[in-house]
Structures are given as structure tokens and as C-alpha cells.
Amino acid sequence: MMRSVRYFLKSRLDPRHSRSPCSMSENKNFSALFLLIILSLIWGTSFILIKQGLKVFPPDQVGAIRVLAASIFLLPLAIPHLKELKQGDHFKLLVSGLMAIFIPAFLFAIAQTHLESSLTGILNTLSPVFMAIVGTLFFHQRFKGFAILGIALSMAGAILLTITQTDNTSFQFNSYALLVVIACAFYGANLNWVKFKITGLGSITITSVSLLFIGPLAAAYLFGFTDFISILQNAPNAWKAFGFIVVLALMSTAVANLIFNRLIKISTPLYASSVTYLMPIVSVMWGVLDGEHLVMGHFIGMAAILTGVYLANRK
After folding, report:
1. Distance CA 60, CA 66 (A)
2. Which residues contact 139 (CB under 8 A, 6 or more apart)?
3. 21 domain residue, yes or no
4. pLDDT in tens, 52-66
5. What value does the mean pLDDT of the chain take?
6. How far is it, in rounded angstroms, from Cα 139 to Cα 301?
7. Which of 3, 6, 49, 146 lies 20 to 30 Å (CA to CA) from residue 78?
8. Residue 186 lies in a domain
């Protein structure tokens, strides 16, 4: 079974296992679009899964379980790919794992203790803005046209989201939204890091090996510094909540990052980051189905962010 899974992932996600360079070139645009849609559905669902896990487990445990489960899931893929690493690759993949998976997993879980899952999904659309900022500051990319206006508009939309209350009659700053903004900054940094610093490795290697490096950190924290085992054994509905986090880990962390790194390789950081245009639709849909309430200020903020993201990243 595991061998079949490995073969499927390799054949679909790793360019070295494609049928031919010609067929790969012909299907490149369709493949990128298909991966973009699947990724939007997976990542858009991740916020409601975090919410379900938080019903039993504290946020630090949700983050650690998510990272550890994803690392275990991709372990059979990571070990064979270790031989591909050259000098310096170990550090690059560790940094990528920390920026793209480890740190955001904790930040999002903590943020959602005081944020609705739908709002977290909307704020996550700031990732392309930080991709542009980091690319300019550290990777010699250049702002063009309305980029500065787009960044300002996106930030204004984020501020509106953080202060809008669900009763639509008052405004109060929610500092936990800043954690999502920081996570987006890490995502934007990793977009550029993978594209410009990790150029000689396939998407499966990048994702699986980076998870292999950060998995022990999550395990050490989960079993050494928390009461995870006690909660799992004694808390009502603990196994149900644990199941939601495992699904989150397998799909939103392991599989989604495989798809995302593959998408970066066959397209551009800009195209890959456009997944954030579609994710809010999915996250808001799940939030509404779960009884979350959005008001006009939230929709205005989301529109401002999406417009700003477009302006900041247009060619």
C-alpha cells in the first residue's frame, strides 16, 4: 500500500518521473491550474480542521501534532531522498521546514483561539504581499506599477478585519490577528527561499526531507513538555479531535506542501501564491456552515486584501 502511494506521488508530483519532456510541456498549464484548484480546496479546509482540534487540545499541541503526523506520513518518502542532498541542502531544507510548516502551524493554532476560522482564512491571503516584499528586500525582485498601492491596500484591509466585531456596531483591535500576519510573512519568505535557494531538488524531496528535519522538534516538544498523552486518554472526544488534526496534517501539511512545492517548480512564486485568491472562498464556506457570522466590514476587508494582492503582484 505504501509503495503504491509513493509511486503515485512520484509519478504525479516529481518532474523526474513524468512520461516525457514533450508531454510535460504540453500539459504544464493544465497541470498548474489543476494543482492550484486542489490546493485551494485542501488549504481552505485547514482552518475548520484546526478549529475542531482546538475543541479538545490546546493550540501548542495542535501545532505539534500537525507537524509530527505529517512528518511520520512522509517518512517513507523522505529517507530514500536523503541521498540527493548536497552540502548546504540540509540547512536550506531545515529553514524551509521551519518557515513553511513548523512556525506557521503553531501561529495559526494560537490565533484561532481568538479568531473565527473563516477570518483566519481571509487573513491568510496576505501571503503573496509578503512574497513581494521579501522578494524585493532579499532576492533582488523589483516593485512595479501599483505594487506599493497594493501593499498599502492589503494592509488596510487586514487592519479592518482585525478591528471589525461580529455585531457590526463596534471596533476593537484583535491582537491575535497579528499572529496570522506573521505566519503569512514566513510563507512569503519561504516562497522566495524555495524558488531561488533550493533549485536543484524536486518537490517531494523538499517537502518530505524538510518535514523529516522538523518532525523530531515537534515530537520532543509534544511528549516532553505537554500533557498530550493524558488529554488523549482522558478528555471527552479526544480521539475525534485528534482525528481532525491528523487529517489536517496529512492533507493540509504533507500532501498540500508536496503540491505547493511542485506548483512553484512548474510555474512561478506569483502563480503559486495565487492560491490565496481561492482559499478564502473555501474557508468562508466552511465557516458559514459551522455557524460563524461575518458582517459587512469583514467582506470589505477581504475585498481590499484581494485587490491589494492583485495590484502588488501584477506583472
Report:
1. 10
2. 192, 196
3. no
4. 999 999 999 999 999
5. 84
6. 29
7. 49
8. yes
